[in-house]
Amino acid sequence: DARVTQTPRHKVTEMGQEVTMRCQPILGHNTVFWYRQTMMQGLELLAYFRNRAPLDDSGMPKDRFSAEMPDATLATLKIQPSEPRDSAVYFCASGPYDRGGNTIYFGEGSWLTVV
Amino acid sequence: QKEVEQDPGPLSVPEGAIVSLNCTYSNSAFQYFMWYRQYSRKGPELLMYTYSSGNKEDGRFTAQVDKSSKYISLFIRDSQPSDSATYLCAPRPTGFQKLVFGTGTRLLVSP
To answer: What is the distance between the alpha carbons of residues A59 and A45, in angstroms, rounded to a whole number?
Structure first.
């Protein structure tokens, strides 16, 4: 059963610390997304990649967030320095490139708390 | 104004009720209309989708799109406690995979 794998599942860190979240997309999927979910804002797109190249990171605060795909099996989202307002659930999703109705599949999320 | 608007709920119904969940959107370019279901502390999972206007049925679930009024609906017949979850609508244009999500409607089905 193919699935998107995210680590860590839970992270509590102090303000100012660096946080790195990792994602292994489903094998064969060449499009990868990072979303952030909060009660107030819902699911917000932070960045997405196709064939490892960033296509859109306009939703990401550039001064502290960075997203990369070092290879086809790994996507990373880094926050440095972290702030309490970054507390949220961060979801990675992947999908095959498709102009039609195929969709994307989400991981279980990384639950981040910054104190 | 957000691109996709959804009543956050919660919507509480008794088991067996017919449930109607709705979204409105503003972008005329949206052609695919996805519904995701998210259980507590889990990632969203695709429930069903429709293309353009019309209805689509899948078991107890029916998705309906009215592009003229930019209105999306999901109907659940014979609702079950296992349907208790947050339902998110997520439209997208053709050829563009980025999904824009509504905030989700939390549904509670009591036995």
So the answer is: 6
Q: What is the pLDDT of residues B7-20, one digit of tens each?
A: 888 999 999 999 99
- Cβ of B99 and A107 within 8 Å? no
Residues from chain A contacting residue B45 (CB–CB below 8 Å): 105-106
pLDDT at B105: 95
pLDDT in tens, A44-58: 999 999 999 998 888
Do the chains contact at B45 and A106, CB–CB below 8 Å?
A: yes
Q: Which of B99, B100, B102 sits opposite A104 (nearest CB)?
A: B99
